[in-house]
Amino acid sequence: MALHKFLVPYLLVFVTLAAADSHSFDYFLLVREWNPTLCGHSDCSRTVAASNFTIHGLWPQRRGGSWPSFCNPSATFDEQELTELLPELKVEWPALFNFSSDIDFWTHEWLKHGTCSETSEKPYFEQALRLHRENNILDNLLSAGIQPSDTVYYSYRAVVAAITADLGVRTQVHVYEDRLSEVWMCISKDLQPFDCPHWSQPAWSQRLILIPKPGFTETERMRTTSLAITGLNILLILVVAIGLMVVAQKSCKEKGRGTGPMWSFNKASPSNRGFADEHHLELQRLL
Ligand code: AMP
Predict the structure, then answer these.
(1) Maximum average pLDDT range among 117-126, 206-215, 250-259
(2) Quick one: which of 16, 172, 185, 287 has the most CB atoms within 10 Å?
């Protein structure tokens, strides 16, 4: 009995320390997704896919590769806390599938990952939005000439190099089949991006594509068609203009007032010279 009494406090300390340790983490992963790819293999019909990277989550991680989750079983999600952030959250952190609403998705991310972040709800979402805003992946790809397209492939090496060049840190670029799907960025606990550890990755030479958002191809096709129509219009205008010139020239000829093309009327072409000579002779006759 005495031994039991003696052991209980030690057991309690042990359990508390073990629980605390199961919540520990070393850094964050800011996970952004290229949602045209995600929507390619999941049903996003309820939503409209964005044409930029959007946030999947800000996940506390451990150096060894594991991560804590659901660190506070009694935690709740309070939408009111995020009132100020809602407009940006809706655009930058949308629920595309799986969840019935953005709120459901944010609730899941907060309860599973956010409660392990050692911060409260509003700063957790604020930090994720700020880090996302300050590290624009699509801009980096576009400035390296890597564009959303149905047909143009790039090497994994080129895509990683483009993202790394501008962000200044090594990220983890994830590929689903041959489509870029997610970019994971490592963020220290004091919220500074740093080089992610080397994880397994596709071969540098693997070809991958940044598929456009659904509807892009149609839009592009429409744009190409309208460009073709504009080209045709210009051609038509040119043909009509040349036709008018020819008609005008002919009527000039009929009146015996020159044979050269109108635009070279003042040049010393043989025909103009003939016209000038005739006038010269007539003048001489008159004098
Ligand atoms: P996790 O944060 O790892 O628990 O991810 C939760 C689930 O959300 C996973 O099944 C993902 O496939 C899914 N998921 C990822 N991005 C989105 C999104 N934008 N909208 C809805 N579900 C998503």
Answers:
(1) 117-126
(2) 185
Phi, psi (deg, nearest 5) at residue 55: -80, 135
Rounded to an integer, what distance in angstroms lies between the CA atom of residue 165 and that of residue 159? 10
Q: How far apart are CA 56 and CA 105, in angstroms?
A: 9
Catalytic residues: 56, 109, 113
Mutate to test the pocket of ligand 1, among 98, 102, 111, 125 (most ligand atoms within 8 A of CB): 98
| 66-72 own/partner pairs: CB under 8 Å, 24+ apart | 67/25, 67/113, 67/116, 68/22, 68/23, 68/24, 68/25, 68/116, 69/112, 69/113, 69/116, 70/111, 70/112, 70/115, 70/116, 71/23, 71/115, 71/116, 72/111, 72/115
Atom 13 in ligand 1: residue holding the nearest Cα: 98
Pocket of ligand 1 (CB under 6 A): 33, 56-57, 94-99, 105, 109, 112
Give the lowest-confidence range in 32-41, 72-81, 145-154. Answer: 32-41
pTM for the model stands at: 0.71
Distance CA 109, CA 86 (A): 15
Q: What span, in angstroms and rounded, lies between the C-alpha atoms of 87 and 105?
A: 15
- Strand pairing report for 53-61 and 27-34: antiparallel
